């Protein structure tokens, strides 16, 4: 990608303090660094040194997530009491509890628990993807959905499902989604290679890429799928946790933590990249290699999420800004907090989708769009682009 990524500084610095300008104006004095000593105000942190991760935001977010999972398991058109919930979990975890009737047991263990866990995993993946892309592109508006990556992953998954490749199973769908996500990334990179990634240009180009892949998806459905398949795929593309089952949860539970750890290990590099390619290179970062690694990690996380629950937008835009406001821009703290906040956000959004129009269920992607669009416009307005 081009190193010339940002325009003149603007009010968006309040949203993403490290997202604008590679060099700060010469400061009059130093400021205390997390590891002791002083560092020049506005300068990126030393790459060779790692500051300790503040534990309290992470511990607090973990407790909130655990409580949210417990409460979300009870939410639905059929109420489930705390005692019944404990008995179901105890029975399946081998604690010797007296089993409940099969209907209640299946409701909790086969339907709600996979769905709640999938919402947490997907929310964490998308939030971290957004935080990584915002640092790599130095753009506060970067998000897998807005950049067209989710649409590319959807197209790849639909190709595997609808065309004669359909017998390859869940891993094949995930592989197709990954191929589509990487292809959309490559196309976006080619289109922006000479023009840079200022806020308006990257959004417009992402919309173009997304619309292209959406058109390809529609063409495949109209030409190759029967009515039932078209209806099911269309509902899935809106983003829904309803298809979540244990096999998909296992795949997501393996890939998501690996991707999150890979991103977290690059936290110092992300801090440097947020100041620009030249600054990162001067600090010893292999810019091209690090960017490619992070973009592949983002593509993998996005493709696994899309292959399972469809395209869910704006999670990667909303959550990183909220987490950054609470814990600051250091990615060693920001990434785990964004992951936990994304898990809680999507978990509660899905719970609302289940009961808001009961007995009908709203696709969770519809609700995230209703929440995300006003916040997206607010970000644009604060950047001076609207």
Can you lay out the helices and strands and say which pair or pack?
Elements: E1 30-32, E2 38-40, H1 55-72, H2 82-92, H3 102-136, H4 149-162, H5 169-192, H6 199-224, H7 227-237, H8 246-265, H9 267-273, H10 277-282, H11 287-309, H12 315-327, H13 331-355, H14 364-383
Note the main attributes of this structure.
386 residues; mainly alpha; two-stranded antiparallel ribbon; 14 helices; 2 strands
Radius of gyration over C-alpha positions, nearest whole angstrom: 21 Å
- Number of helices, counting only DSSP H or I runs of 4 residues or more: 14
Could you list the spans in which at least 5 consecutive residues all have pLDDT below 50?
Answer: 1-52
**Element order: H for helix, E for strand:** EEHHHHHHHHHHHHHH
**How many DSSP E strands?**
2
Q: Any idea what the shape is?
A: globular
| SS-derived structural category | mainly alpha
Structure write-up:
The protein is mainly alpha-helical. The chain contains 14 helices and two strands, in the order E-E-H-H-H-H-H-H-H-H-H-H-H-H-H-H. It has helices at residues 55-72, 82-92, 102-136, 149-162, 169-192, 199-224, 227-237, 246-265, 267-273, 277-282, 287-309, 315-327, 331-355, 364-383, and strands spanning 30-32, 38-40. Strands 1-2 form a two-stranded antiparallel ribbon. Helix 4 (149-162) runs antiparallel to helix 5. Residues 1-52 have low confidence and may be disordered.
């Amino acid at each position: 990608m081009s190193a010339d990524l940002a325009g003149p500084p603007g009010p968006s610095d309040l949203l993403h303090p490290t997202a604008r300008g590679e060099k700060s104006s010469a400061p009059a004095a130093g400021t205390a660094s997390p590891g002791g000593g002083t560092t020049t105000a506005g300068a990126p942190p030393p790459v060779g040194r790692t500051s300790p991760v503040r534990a309290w935001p992470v511990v607090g977010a973990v407790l909130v997530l655990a409580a949210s999972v417990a409460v979300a398991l009870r939410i639905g058109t059929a109420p489930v009491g705390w005692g019944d919930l404990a008995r179901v979990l105890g029975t399946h975890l081998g604690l010797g509890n007296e089993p409940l009737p099969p209907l209640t047991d299946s409701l909790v263990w086969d339907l709600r628990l996979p769905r709640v866990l999938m919402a947490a995993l997907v929310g964490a993946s998308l939030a971290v993807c957004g935080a990584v892309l915002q640092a790599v592109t130095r753009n506060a508006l970067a998000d897998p959905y807005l950049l067209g990556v989710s649409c590319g992953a959807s197209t790849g998954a639909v190709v595997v499902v609808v065309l004669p490749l359909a017998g390859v199973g869940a891993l094949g769908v995930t592989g197709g989604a990954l191929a589509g996500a990487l292809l959309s990334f490559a196309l976006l990179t080619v289109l922006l290679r000479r023009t840079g990634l200022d806020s308006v240009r990257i959004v417009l180009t992402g919309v173009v890429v997304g619309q292209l892949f959406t058109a390809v998806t529609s063409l495949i459905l109209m030409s190759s799928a029967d009515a039932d398949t078209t209806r099911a795929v269309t509902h899935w593309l809106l983003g829904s946790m309803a298809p979540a089952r244990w096999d998909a949860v296992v795949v997501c539970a393996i890939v998501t933590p690996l991707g999150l750890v890979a991103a977290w290990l690059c936290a110092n590099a992300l801090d440097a990249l947020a100041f620009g390619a030249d600054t990162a290179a001067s600090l010893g970062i292999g810019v091209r290699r690090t960017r490619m690694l992070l973009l592949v990690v983002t593509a993998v996380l996005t493709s696994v999420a899309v292959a399972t629950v469809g395209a869910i937008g704006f999670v990667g835009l909303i959550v990183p800004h909220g987490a950054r406001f609470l814990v600051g821009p250091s990615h060693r703290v920001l990434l785990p907090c964004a992951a936990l906040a994304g898990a809680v956000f999507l978990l509660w959004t899905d719970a609302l989708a289940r009961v808001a129009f009961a007995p009908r269920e709203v696709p969770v992607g519809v609700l995230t769009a209703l929440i995300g669009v006003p916040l997206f416009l607010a970000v644009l307005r604060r950047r001076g682009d609207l």
